[in-house]
Amino acid sequence: MPSSLAQVFTRANQGIRAPSVSVEVHLSQGLPGLNIVGLPEAAVRESKDRVRSALITSGYDFPDGRITVNLAPADLPKEGGRFDLAIALGILVASEQLPAATLLNREFLGELALSGQLRPVRATLPAAQACQCADRVLVLPVANAPMAAMVSNLTVIGARDLTEVCAWLCERTHIEPTQHQPESNPTNYPDLADVHGQEQAKRALLIAAAGSHHLLLFGPPGTGKTMLASRLPGLLPPLDEPEALEVAAIHSLSSRSGSAIGQRPFRNPHHSSSSVSLVGGGSIPQPGEVSFAHHGVLFLDEMPEFTRAALEMLREPLENGEVMVTRARGRECFPARFQLVGAMNPCPCGYFGDSQRSCRCSPDQIRRYRHKLSGPLLDRIDLQVEVASQNIRTIIEPPAPTGEQICSTSYRHLVIQARQKQLARQGKINNQLTSQALFQACDLSSQEKALLTSASEQLQISTRGLHRLLRVARTIADLANSERVLRPHLAEALQYRQLDRQAGPS
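The structure assignment produced for this chain is given below.
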């Protein structure tokens, strides 16, 4: 390679992918200047000033000739300051201040401060996974190194500034590769023991956790719907390594990613959230709340207050576990396999059917309020449970506990056991069963089939609703250590289709 030409490898950010980018630096005679080509965004074009100052303050010479930087491939949009370090090293090699051989089999990421310090960048985990597949060493800011080290069989070098990177490349100093440190302090989720009463809702929460089913809680204000929903992540099994990598990769696309490493996400967007914030979007496609809740819980409080358009956009991710975001400047597919938990009042004033307070709403108001949740969306929610008002004395003076107390730890143990049964039987959890595998897993007798047919005709359950009913019944059977789905399991599953049985006020 001629001394005036250098090539450095780095990674772009495109959704949850990290395509390879070759930074080609050419130094030639002519009027002094630095020109960047290859479809750079504004932040990339501004890197020439950051790189120039960083080189000078780090004690290196900035070449006086004409410098051309090409970011290949040219048709891939480049954004952010993640290319600064690669551009600076390319200039040093092209100007013979750094040997070209030091860049072989290595990739570089990082934004440069004017002092030469390396600042962290977003989306480092997808870049680390792609770098591991290319069998190269990844050099990046020390603040990004712990997350990148989550990728197995990858050498990660975390550096503080440009001077340290160059000294390491020339073997004048040694930087110990960053090792992945597992989370030593697990997250303390809210405990289910804090919720007094509401035994049916707790049972539904257990079933939802065991089979990864979607859940809708409806009832008067102040009955504990939000408390119950916030306890669901504490009932779920810990993330395994592939799941933890997927969650961390998505959250690395956001600047607020540190709190999500190693734990089940719990996202609670406000009901004023737009469709774009829920499912993703923007001029350059970015993930939304459904993707940030991947392998976790998406809680929609006051669900009917969300816009109809935003709620209807949940249909695809609820069914497929992913969402396709298409914009004029790109198309990206983001994973979105989450558990939906919704909470709503039975009517606009909140007290329809309440035994303690009277409702002020007319039948038409109640019907319009409930119709904000469309039939196709309700069809995709497996468990629909009423959270009724409780007697105030049972809260102030709760009865003495009898037997084993219901808490998150005991329920999580049951959930793990149930999921182990599902994985051993069919290789996946019940909520992901296909139609054919579902009937094989249930193994219904003629009596159970007759009950299912009669209930489906009376409640007018759709085919999708029938499949979801069977998945819930299969989970109930797993919790009861039953190899087959029996009538009691079907009957209990039918009890959790309460909105199907309530056609609304007459």
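Interim note for the steering committee: The mean pLDDT is 89. DSSP finds 22 helices and 18 strands in the chain.
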